[in-house]
Specification:
Structural class: alpha+beta
Distance between the termini: 11 Å
Largest sheet: 5 strands, antiparallel
Number of strands: 5
């Protein structure tokens, strides 16, 4: 699964975490950046939770964050969260397409 995403042009790394915040799988991620990415996911979950509460929504599709180091896409993957970090916002279409193909084969 992770190898498929890493083959997408512009992909930097991918990280899949469970609801407790534990790493399920990753690829391309340097260990020194793990804490940063887990913090980014935790912050993203807080934003998503707040938006869901405000909008009365029960589900979410994705959250794009453009941070130092490049854009990050958070996507629900069953009960887990998939983080895909890539080189530039212009790669977003390719990344979304690859994630959608992975989620809905």
């Amino acid at each position: 699964m992770m190898d498929t995403l890493m083959a997408v042009r512009g992909m930097k790394h991918v990280l899949l975490i469970d609801l407790s915040g534990s790493v399920v799988s990753s690829a391309g991620l340097e260990p020194a950046f793990l804490k940063r990415e887990l913090g980014l996911i935790a912050a993203g979950k807080a934003v998503i939770g707040s938006l869901q509460s405000s909008l009365g929504a029960t589900e979410w599709n994705e959250l794009l964050l453009d941070v130092d180091g490049g854009p990050v896409l958070l996507t629900p993957f069953g009960p887990q969260i998939l983080l895909t970090a890539f080189d530039d916002v212009t790669s977003l279409g390719r990344v979304r397409f690859a994630v959608r193909r992975l989620i809905n084969p």
